Amino acid sequence: MMRLLYLLFGLSVLSGAVWADYRGLSLTRPTELRNVPKSVRDNPGAYRSLYRGTGRYFGGK
Amino acid sequence: MARPAGSCPNCSAPIEFRWSSAVQTTCPHCRSVVVRRDVDLEAVGQVADLPLTPSPIQIGTRGRFEGRAFTVTGRIVYEYEHGTWNEWHLWFMDGSSGWLSDAQAEYAVSRQVQPASPLPAPESLEPGRRLRWKNVDFTVTTLTRARYRGVEGELPFEYWDKSEVLFADLRTADGQFATIDYSQSPPLLFLGVFVAFDDLELTELRPEGTGPTVDATGFNCRNCGAAIELKAIGTATVACTSCGAIQDPADPAVLILQAAAERQRHTPKIPLGTIGTLHGDRYEVIGFQHRTIVVEDEKYGWDEYLLYNREQGFRYLSEYAGHWNDIRPVHGLPTETRVRGHFAARYLGTTFKLFQTANATTEYVIGQFPWRVRVGDTATVSDFVAPPLMLSAERTPEETTWSLGEYTPGSTIWKAFDLEGRPPRPSGIFANQPSPYAGRVGSYWGLFVLLLLAVGLAGMWRLLSADREPLYSARYSFIPGAAESSYVTPEFELREPSNLEIEFATNLSNNWTYFNLALIETESGRALDLGREVSYYFGVDSDGRWTEGSPRGAVMLPTQPAGRYYLRVEPEGSPGTPAVTYTLTVRRDVPLPLYYAIAIVLLAIPPVLVSLRAAAFEGRRWQESDYGD
């Protein structure tokens, strides 16, 4: 019985992996915005991104 | 076929020989031993009353051995320390003869053979010595001094005037046996095999319930007066079921071997006299003893029940803390060995690991035993385990006996003997208790391998079949700290729903860049806002060369609907650092091996857990062994 459950679990995990791969799932989910004005094409600087760089320094060990 | 041979020289009763080669027979009327000399018959002596034995075999019993039919024509009865045994003479239909040894329902068929070289003198024999006949190695197991008690029926030689006889018994690992009979000069050699009662296909047996099932010479306990009914099993020890006093049935009126009051009483969980069915045969509980061992100053005790079946012989049940074993003597001689530094014993192809060796002491006895049992008897007991089996060696200065136990649930015992209530709940883990994880570990890992294969195939299929189609690619550069670095890419078309990868291949050198990204669908104005930092540092320190990060970076977007898209990109960097040049590439249908790696980790969890639990179970089992802490 437990082995059958393991088999079912395994098949679920396998299906999940294939689905996640095919769908291109990412742990960092993008934020969706609606109705971005077409003027962004002409004035990219007017767009306010929700993400900003941290600007932190990684140099050194 | 019976052949008239004449009249008894002593009483004139007709004498007939069933077997034409018989040399000796006994007169059924006057019990004279009659020997055939040419055509004459001579009465050479008289046979005393034979001791009572419970054997179902009798003169005239028929059977088969190795495909050949035989008839029992005679027997010799011996008595030794552990009771009596019969050597039944077999007349095979091809005219040859053999012997069926019936020692307390342990059966072996043998034939006399002519050894190629003289047999060793008895003084040179000792248990453990190896001898070889017919390309088979035999090991001396016991030297038995037996008392000749009488003969019955037809024998192939004269045999009636014996007193004490010395036998050397030898065995092999696979159940062959040899006996050297030192009653003649030169001694006789018999080679044979142990056989199961059922394999002999015996017919015309002594009907059950007839003959000496119960010895008419039962007596009253010398200590308490309770009536003791002797089973005719060649009883050597009787412990009164009322008071526990141990008596010798040979002389119960004058001998109380040990007083009951000296001992603590133990109540058998299966009452003596209970009849049950084990392995399809009816067994009666006829004896009970409580034995103990002392390990690290702590006393551990267990109960042993002696079971008896007229045809199948003796077997035992042992119980310790609710754990039961169904035990039978073994015929073959196990081989003691070492497996990876661990003491072990091999028997019939199975390797048993040594679990524990301890000195067992008998502390309490009631019922009847076909061998001498006394309170205070000690033996060195070694238990070798291969769950659910346990091979045990009991060593005394005189002999080593082996038995094979099988772990049996208490419920099975209760059902077999139709006992009331429920069996005691087992506590702890017993030496040969089958692990609930036995077999599971292998099957779980087997399943894991299959699933791993499936994951591998699926991942491989994706790697090989993914399009990785570039939708847009261009080279850019920016100066960190510049007033305005944002820009938009030209539109590109996603012809079918697909995931997207946005990759940056930069010339970063001990620097970083953060890319603010927005994938914007031209028609709807829907935007997916995200960011990605790319950094790459390297250098040399006291440990040598080091690097951190990568000049390349990518970000994945889940499946997007078909349509036209463009990217708004806003790179950021530390002001004053060198200009960054990079290639931005957008691809569709890109495989993600990470998910297959995650799947493998998830799939490994159940077998790892089962393996850990199995190891913990075995750890608890062996904790109680000689190898425990």
Walk me through what this model shows.
The complex is a heterodimer of chains A (61) and B (629). Chain A is mainly alpha-helical and 61 residues long. Chain A is built from 1 helix and 1 strand, in the order H-E. Helices cover 36% and strands 5% of the residues of chain A. The N and C termini of chain A lie far apart (51 Å). Residues 53-61 of chain A have low confidence and may be disordered. In chain B, 37% of the residues are buried. Chains A and B meet through helix 1 and strand 1 of A and helix 2, strand 33, strand 35, strand 36 and strand 37 of B.
What is the quaternary state of this protein? heterodimer
Write down how many β-strands of chain B occur, each being a DSSP E stretch of 2 or more residues.
41
Report the helical percentage of chain B. 10-25%
What shape does the CA trace of chain B take? elongated
Cα separation of the termini of chain A: 51 Å
Low-confidence stretches of chain B are: 212-216
Largest sheet of chain B: 8 strands, antiparallel, barrel
The most extensive interface, with participating residues per chain, is:
A-B, 47 and 66 residues
Radius of gyration of chain B: 42 Å
